[in-house]
Amino acid sequence: MSARAARNWRVVSRDGTPLWAGEDPRRAAAVAAGHVDALIRVEMTGEEVMARWRPGSHDQHPDGRPWTWADESADLTGRDAVRLAWVAAHYLDRPILVSEFDGRVWDGHHRVVAAARTGAWLTVVVLPAAGPAPAETPPAEAPSFMRPWCDRTTAAAVWARAAAGGSPDLLASDLGG
């Protein structure tokens, strides 16, 4: 990892309150584990994101082979090239959301591929491996993966967005990213 990214590991609460900053990602994870609402933020290139987390859009091919970033890039280029170009030109300043819990990118696949192609830096919001206990149980309809990371209000807002035809995924912006 480059020196620029290493200097920028930060642990913040969901409201943006700084909790820790430094060069050690393991220390960032330890600090985050001690706070119920902590998130880790770091600046990385698209290539660094690809090296650390897997794409979350598909787990595997129909024949059982794992889905890779090369597959993701080819898929996005083939079916969504115009959107990918637009993202590269206008959307790389938005944070992406990744999870140490399952090792995948939850929000920002287009941005990761575009950043890898252009050499751009991304703000990465990292959900720690050990999820905090939720303050309240989300609605029964909320996806189970959301429960460690958001309260009932956030889960209900994501569910309402999905019911209205929007994204059903937990996005970095849902967590103040």
Q: What is the tally of helical segments?
A: 6
Sum up the overall morphology in one term.
globular
* Helix content, binned percent: 25-40%
Assembly state of the chains shown:
single chain
The residue-averaged pLDDT reads 75
Structural class, by secondary structure, is alpha/beta
Low-confidence stretches: 131-148
Q: How big a fraction of the residues is strand? A: 15-25%
Major β-sheet annotation? 7 strands, mixed
Break the fold down into its secondary structure elements and pairings.
Elements: H1 3-7, E1 9-13, E2 18-22, H2 25-33, E3 38-45, H3 46-52, E4 54-55, H4 69-90, E5 96-99, E6 104-107, H5 109-118, E7 121-127, H6 152-163
Parallel strand pairs: 4-6, 5-7
Antiparallel strand pairs: 1-2, 1-3, 3-7, 5-6
Helix pairs in contact: 3-5, 4-5
